[in-house]
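Model it.
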Amino acid sequence: MTFLKRLMYPLYEARLVRLIKGRPQPKHVAIMADGNRRWAREAGFTDISHGHRQGAKKIGEMIAWCRDTDIEVVTIYLLSTENLKRSQQEVQLLFDIISDVVTHLSRGDLDCQVRLVGNLDLLPAPVTQRMVDAAEETKDNQGVIVNVAVGYGGRQEIVDAVQKLVRSEAEKGTSAAEMAERVTADSITEHLYTKGLPDPDLVIRTSGEQRLSGFLLWQAAYSEIWFTDTYWPAFRKVDFLRALRDYSQRSRRFGK
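Modeled.
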């Protein structure tokens, strides 16, 4: 059976590529890379770091898969504000792994442009500086824009955006009455972590969970959402192509 699966895999992958060719494809894909710890436990590892490290390797692979698609932006959720409440040992492990991910993406032949989205003040200064320096190296790259969401919380992002907007207006001397009029959907959008980028067309969440968990709450209001039971470390190119195939078959209405 294993041999048969290996034989059929490239045929199925090629079929999926044909099915999405010429069909609508997302420009911006957001990924909730979930299930690293459960993958490690079910694979028999007592040390969950194996799951986190395997999941980290998958990120570069996924960015490479985008080359043959119309995808221009990828946002990947790696560290939420809730994750920071885990044990000190696991949080430090995540800091190290995510820093390695950003460094890896900034080098090699991916040619992606890395951006950090989230409240970086929540991270230790050395960790933040390492990631900022690595991301800076990619600013002139021409490939896929990769938003790495670290220290990220969707509600906090909206709060931060409104506060930045209010401060900006206050500095201009705007009165309270006028300020209320200037708080609009467009003005808030201009102060989000992802300002200047299109909202995600497609949100993919791995591991079987079917919720957004605070991810891009504002931006994903009209996104198509695709769930899979596959854990992130086991996510394959055929899974990715299946998500794109399903997206191509949907009729987007944007609330109409």
